[in-house]
Amino acid sequence: MPGEVVLRRHQTNPRTAEIPVVILSADARAGLIQRLLEQGARAFLTKPLDVKEFLELLDAVAAERAQAAAG
Questions:
Q1: At what angle do helices 30-38 and 3-12 cross, to 10 degrees?
Q2: Residues 59, 63: Cα–Cα separation, whole Å
Q3: In the chain, what is the greatest distance between 2 CA atoms, to the nearest angstrom?
Q4: Are 29 and 52 in contact (CB under 8 A)?
């Protein structure tokens, strides 16, 4: 199933709609990345995975969610 379909299903399901989506793909076409980000993906990471970048992203998402819960 294409990532765009998964993202759309995730966003339209009330149980998962608020969960940030990060795309991980070997397909790094600029048009695809731009389209998925515009459709609501939180981030787009490419393979091979940069573990440091991934962990920084997790920290940022966790901090945003903690701030939203406290605010």
A1: 10
A2: 6
A3: 38
A4: no
Q: What pTM does this model have?
A: 0.85
SS (H, E, C) the chain: CCHHHHHHHHHHCCCCCCCCCEEEECCCCHHHHHHHHHCCCCEEEECCCCHHHHHHHHHHHHHHHHHHHHC
Q: Report the residue count for the chain.
A: 71
* Digit-coded pLDDT (tens) for 4-63: 999 999 999 999 999 999 999 999 999 999 999 999 999 999 999 999 999 999 999 999
Q: Which residues contact 63 (CB under 8 A, 6 or more apart)?
A: none
In this structure, what is the dihedral angle of CA atoms 68, 33, 2, 50, given to the nearest 10 degrees?
Answer: -70
